Backbone:
């Protein structure tokens, strides 16, 4: 009598457990995984990460061996901030190491398969250092640390569509003469390109001029933060690994950050 019941219960458990785990991609799960990534970077030990069986590591737009990448060296992290995309089940983390001999400003998208935030399917990193476009980690840190990134109230969160279009329009400015005017610039908007601050950021914008659209676009869209991060290959200016992050507050662009790799 007991046996069939027990077996029945076990079968039910085994069947339901993976489903309940994989059902939803949670913000907490994404941010916890992003935090393990930061700890691993701080220790320089990739063994601290729970990588999926079919894991992909990409650094500066090239698939490569994680053991030979940035994560295998310990860096002191002086500033970090993460956003979460529960639909794509991906996160974006920006970190800055400004105090060591080899400074870095890094933008990393982490992707999970089947909504399983316990395992990392992909780490996709754009890493800028000395010699890269407008690079000065201390200045970048100073500007970004002063920004306000509190969550937006539920009623005033931009749609995913608006955020994606803002990211795309920004990257289209070099090839589409009308793109800059489609972006809802805030009057107090700040743009930090590498370490170069432009305020307000709706000034001095490109209006076409290049025939090559910026390609390889990968998105992390966070409605709670009102942000989109797009990793791409900046083909308009010549195959450069790049991250563009935009924050929209009250329907207007508030912050723009760029990390562009053009060094050796
Ligand atoms: C993953 O989670 C999202 C958001 O919770 C949900 O819309 C989607 O259907 C889920 N996908 C899978 C494959 O479970
Ligand atoms: C492994 O990942 C790669 C890149 O994301 C994908 O193209 C491939 O189909 C995956 N293979 C399996 C067995 O999941
Ligand atoms: C990341 O930043 C948060 C504060 O925003 C801090 O509590 C945490 O310790 C930082 N993580 C690392 C690895 O530096």
Residues:
């Amino acid at each position: 009598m007991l046996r069939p019941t027990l077996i029945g219960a076990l079968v039910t458990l085994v069947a339901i457990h993976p489903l309940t785990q994989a059902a939803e991609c949670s913000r907490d799960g994404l941010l916890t995984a992003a935090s393990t990534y930061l700890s691993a970077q701080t220790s320089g030990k990739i063994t601290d990460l729970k990588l999926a069986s079919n894991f992909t590591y990409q650094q500066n737009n090239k698939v490569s061996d994680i053991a030979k990448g940035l994560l295998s060296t310990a860096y002191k992290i002086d500033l970090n901030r993460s956003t979460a995309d529960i639909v794509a089940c991906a996160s974006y983390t920006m970190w800055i190491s400004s105090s060591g001999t080899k400074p870095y400003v890094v933008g990393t998208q982490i992707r999970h398969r089947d909504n399983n935030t316990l395992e990392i399917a992909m780490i996709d990193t754009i890493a800028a250092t000395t010699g890269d476009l407008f690079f000065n980690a201390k200045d970048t840190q100073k500007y970004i640390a002063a920004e306000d990134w509190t969550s937006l109230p539920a009623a005033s969160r931009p749609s995913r569509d608006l955020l994606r279009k803002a990211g795309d329009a920004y990257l289209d400015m070099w090839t589409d003469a009308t793109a800059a005017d489609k972006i809802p610039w805030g009057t107090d908007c700040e743009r930090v390109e590498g370490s170069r601050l432009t305020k307000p950021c709706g000034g001095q914008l490109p209006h076409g001029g290049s025939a090559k659209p910026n390609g390889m676009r990968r998105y992390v869209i966070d409605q709670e933060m009102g942000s989109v991060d797009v990793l791409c290959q900046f083909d308009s200016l010549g195959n450069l690994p790049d991250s563009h992050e935009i924050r929209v507050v009250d329907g207007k662009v508030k912050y723009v950050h760029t990390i562009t790799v053009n060094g050796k």
